[in-house]
Design brief:
It contains 12 helices and 18 strands. By secondary structure, it is of the alpha/beta class. Strands 1-2-3-4-5 form a 5-stranded parallel beta sheet, sandwiched between helices. Strands 14-15-16-18-17 form a 5-stranded mixed β-barrel.
Length: 428
């Protein structure tokens, strides 16, 4: 394994909004556009109206900062509403989620301002052989794309298309190449990663893919999984998460709500009791697992009792990495046509949930003071994540950061808490 991870060469400016899959695809575009310093790519997110607003803000900021650059907008928001972005005077080109992975799409001589192919017609996906990441010491590998489910609040299937999986051999090759380049942690990404496999010959599962990666890339120290749908965690995947030490003890669940009636109205496939039972089983087998969760506050028809159930799921599932979103009606989704709550109430409920989630996270971080953790050092040479995804910063008066530590796993002792990060000293 090399002494340190590679430093990305100069090229386009990539601004990836939202999910880890966007990060992986952003780096693929960086490779396609190698040497094109004149391009700014805004890789958008459509999950909420706020995400779209932030995308528009990023576009304006990019144009103001670099008036001579070519501004290209792509990603899920561009896929679902290309006309809106094409109408912005700051935008030179709008590309769909498939089109962005074709180098010819970025040709500034193209006549059409927008190139957005029918995402629903896509039946296959392929790995993007990314060999370095400009902003992360972790590497992200796409194993799946799209989604076959139609949750009533979600616009993403219309931005990503139907579920499709990357063949296991191609995933293994991508992971092996990254490890050979010096990456100590690989994150498997997708829109619905637990749906991996049924479209491939033999119908492999995510658990089978992970087993193959661990067997065929024995030098990979850390494997992390992106957001999981708990109802799709089968026995094989459960045993790997709770028993395989190379899989990080960090499980992020797509819960969305803690109330059964709201879950039904969302068309989620799990119940509150099933989510709680899964977490209890996981932590009984591997107590150090840190639970993350996506939760929506103020879904249409949510009353005070339902909100209380939603709030209490933080404690019931021991959530320490809480991602709380105020409900955002997305045009074209069934939830946008349901009876809406007052926006002030939605924001107030989201704020209450965020406050509770932050307090839980702070107590959890405090419980880690004095423990030994393994820190994957980020590109700044001083911060990074522990195995449980806690953010850690080396103390300023600790041993001076060594550039060779970037991308490496170093043992540290947690000395305190500073905001949403832990402080640590390197072990000698």
């Amino acid at each position: 394994m090399p002494d340190s991870i590679p430093i990305a060469t100069t090229g386009p400016e990539i601004i990836s909004m939202g999910c880890r899959l966007n990060i992986a695809e952003g780096e693929a575009m960086r490779g396609l556009l190698a040497g094109r310093d004149d391009v700014i790519v805004i890789n958008s997110c459509a999950v909420t109206n706020e995400a779209v607003r932030q995308t528009r803000q990023a576009i304006r900021k990019a144009r103001k900062a670099r008036p001579g650059a070519q501004v290209v907008v792509t990603g899920c928001a561009a896929q679902t509403d290309p006309a809106m972005f094409a109408a912005m005077p700051e935008v030179d080109r709008v590309l769909g989620n498939i089109d962005k992975l074709d180098a010819t799409s970025f040709d500034p001589r193209a006549n059409a301002k927008a190139r957005v192919s029918d995402i629903m017609a896509v039946r296959e996906t392929a790995p993007h052989m990314v060999t370095s990441f400009a902003e992360h010491a972790r590497a992200f590998v796409e194993v799946q794309n799209g989604c076959d489910h139609r949750c009533t609040f979600c616009i993403i299937p219309y931005g990503r298309g139907n579920s499709r999986s990357v063949p296991a051999g191609a995933v293994v090759d991508a992971v092996r190449a990254l490890v050979e380049r010096g990456y100590a942690e690989v994150v498997l990404t997708g829109v619905d990663v637990t749906s991996y496999g049924p479209d491939l010959p033999g119908s492999p599962t995510l658990g089978m893919l992970i087993e193959r990666i661990l067997k065929l890339v024995p030098d990979l120290p850390r494997l992390r999984l992106s957001s999981l749908d708990g109802v799709e965690v089968d026995d094989r995947l459960f045993d790997l998460i709770t028993g395989e030490q190379r899989i990080m003890p960090h499980v992020h669940l797509s819960l969305q709500s803690g109330d059964d009636m709201i879950l039904k109205r969302m068309k989620r496939r799990h119940s509150r009791a099933q989510a709680i039972a899964l977490v209890e089983r996981m932590k009984a087998r591997r107590p150090e697992i840190a639970i993350g969760a996506d939760l929506i506050a103020g879904f249409p028809t949510e009353d005070e009792a339902m909100h209380a159930q939603n709030l209490s799921i933080l404690d019931a599932c021991d959530v320490v990495h809480g991602h709380i979103f105020p409900f955002s009606p997305r045009s074209g989704t069934p939830a946008a046509r349901m009876p809406q709550l007052d926006r002030a109430l939605v924001k107030a409920r989201a704020a209450e949930m965020r406050s509770a989630a932050q307090a839980r996270a702070a107590r959890w971080r405090q419980s880690l003071v004095g423990t030994h953790q393994n820190l994957l050092v980020e590109r700044d040479g001083r911060t990074g994540h522990g195995e449980n995804f806690v953010r850690i910063a080396l103390e300023r008066d600790s041993d001076r950061p060594d550039p060779s530590h970037i991308g490496r796993i170093v043992p540290v002792t947690i000395t305190g808490q500073n905001g949403d990060m832990l402080t640590a000293e390197m072990n000698t």
